[in-house]
Structure formats: structure tokens, C-alpha cells
Amino acid sequence: MKSLNATHYEVISTYPSKKERKHHVVHAIVETPKDSRYKFALDAERGIIALHEALPDGYRWPFDYGFIPQTLGDDGDPLDILVMLNEPTFSGCLMKVRLLGAIRLRKNGTENDRFIAAPPRMPGVSLETDPFETLHDIGAARRKEIESFLCGYSESQGNRIDLVGTVELDEAAKLVDHGHKAFAKKR
């Protein structure tokens, strides 16, 4: 079969601009919309987002889930990101987001962090996430819900998940930079 890349996600930059990079704004590409019981994932060989699996009964994605383009994590995939939106978007949606922090996880012994972000503030529109500057701002209860979901659905698939902890904005931004450099080195 001839190589096919219908969407060219690999050419989308990690950071929208140098100025936005300083403000910890990154691009996110949604694979799985909020409230979905299905998990969608990038099929890198074909350059398209495809149905990956169904989640167990009782599990639904708490927020839009996807990846940060032009990054590479220890698991060999782009860095994972949850975007805190009140309403779902759609698979393949590209958006600028503000990093808040990261939940540090190990999946079967391999680092597999999940970055948490919020949409940018928009003039004339009030969003629940507008006051959030860091992961701490989302509150302990909501953070625990996210951690419980991320660990629970993956463990139900037979994976061993270790919750390492959380990191706030500055450390999360350094981890994204590291993932961006790892991607550039691989190319």
C-alpha cells in the first residue's frame, strides 16, 4: 500500500507563535471529544484519527482528549493533553490552549504524562476556566476525578498505572519543551 497522510498533523507546530510560547500556549489536536465512550487515536501511518477502542461501562471522557503536535513522549507517541471545555468539540479539531499543568503517570513502567489545558480567554465570552492559571486552580476534587478516570479506564484494560503526582505550569511547560526537542531529534 502506498503511504497516505490525509491530514498532515505532523506539520502543525507545537507552539502557535514565539510570543504565545512564552505564555505557555500550545496547539492541541483533539482525538476524543468530551463525553465520548469511545477512544479515538491518531493512526500516524495513515495520518487520520481512527476509532481505537470502546471504554468500559461507566466510563466517558471528562474533557476533550488529544495530543500536542510535534512532540514525542517516552512511550513513542505525541504528548497527551486534556482540554477543559464545557462542551465537546470534534475529532481532528485544532485549537490553541493554555497549559495549566500535568498529571504524571507511568503506564506499564513507561512515563505517560497527561497535560491539562484550558481554552484561551476570549473577549466578550465568559468561560468556567477563565480564572484558571495553573493546575492548582482547578481544585483538588476535580483533579482527583481526572486522575481517577485516567487511571481507572487504563487499568480496566489490563495496564499497570502508577500515579506519580502532578506538576504545575512551569514544570509542565518544561516537559512540553522536552517533548518538542525529542520530536525534532527524531526527524
Task: Describe the model.
The chain is of the alpha+beta class. The protein has one domain (9-36, 60-186): Alpha-Beta Complex (Inorganic Pyrophosphatase). Helix content is 21%, strand content 32%. The protein has helices at residues 18-22, 140-155, 169-186; strands at 25-32, 38-43, 48-54, 64-68, 79-83, 94-107, 110-111, 114-118, 161-168. The protein has a 5-stranded mixed beta barrel. A two-stranded antiparallel sheet has the order 2-3. A hairpin with a 2-residue loop joins β6 (94-107) and β7 (110-111).
In total, the number of strands is 9
CATH architecture designation: Alpha-Beta Complex
Describe the largest sheet: 5 strands, mixed, barrel
Q: Total domains, how many? A: 1
**What helical percentage do the residues reach?**
10-25%
Q: How many DSSP H or I helices? A: 3
Strand content: 25-35%
Shape: globular
- CATH homology-level superfamily: Inorganic pyrophosphatase
Low-confidence stretches: none
Q: Quote the average pLDDT.
A: 94
Record the strand order, biggest sheet.
1-4-5-8-6
User: How would you classify the helix and strand content by structural class?
Assistant: alpha+beta
Question: Strand-and-helix sequence, N→C?
Answer: HEEEEEEEEHEH
CATH fold name, please? Inorganic Pyrophosphatase
**Between the first and last Cα atoms, what is the distance in angstroms?**
23 Å
Based on CA atoms alone, the radius of gyration comes out at 16 Å
Report the top-level CATH class. Answer: Alpha Beta
